[in-house]
Amino acid sequence: HDLKAPLRAVSQLASWIEEDAAGHLDEENRERLRLMRRRVVRMDGLIDGLLTYSRLGRTVGQAHEAVPLRPVLEGLIGELALPPGFRVEMDDPLPSLRADPLHLRQLFQNLIANAAAHHDRPGSGTVWIRAEEEESRWRLEVADDGPGIPAEERERVFEMFTCLRGPCDEHTGMGLALARKLVHGYGGEVDVTDRPPRGALFRIWWPKG
Questions:
Q1: Pick from 142, 140, 155, 154: which is nearest to 205 by CA?
Q2: What b/e sequence results for 166-194 when a residue is b if at least 16 CB atoms lie within 10 Å of its CB, and e otherwise?
Q3: Residue 45 has pLDDT above 90, yes or no
Q4: pTM: predicted TM-score of the whole model, two decimal places
């Protein structure tokens, strides 16, 4: 609250200036005020992301019953505001995972939203979700057909406040950091690699026990 209150004041001041000086501002100064408000919104998102990241340490990894993954994903996908023409496809079978259903929603929401936000072909795009059973864990895969992630950046994308492409004032850079912290909290691992012929493939290893 103490961090957000000044942000709200700055945003309100920008709105008042734009309203009171409406007849005297040229387009360049109007754009500066719009840019100020966009950056206030981004800062607000960064604070929310930091709060979520810090709270995960207190709740993630606790013992839970096995949760069927498909109903969780179906509910999530139905609520996401994905771009027109963007699709999410799921292969069967999908496992049941020992986790808080909210954490599973957070994990896949960040991965799907990241793929949609960075896709380079407006009006199209697909994310595929599948799973393979291994001896003591499940390997979950979230693949897309976007521009992919350069090999030298694949570790950095999991760091906080990372923005590889596009206007950074439109993204908080927290999504993949939150995803990794969730997976690690349950004793799993996550990485990203290529998906030939184009796109990124996120692989998650989730313990069965």
A1: 140
A2: eeeeebbbbbbbbbbbbbebbebebebee
A3: no
A4: 0.73
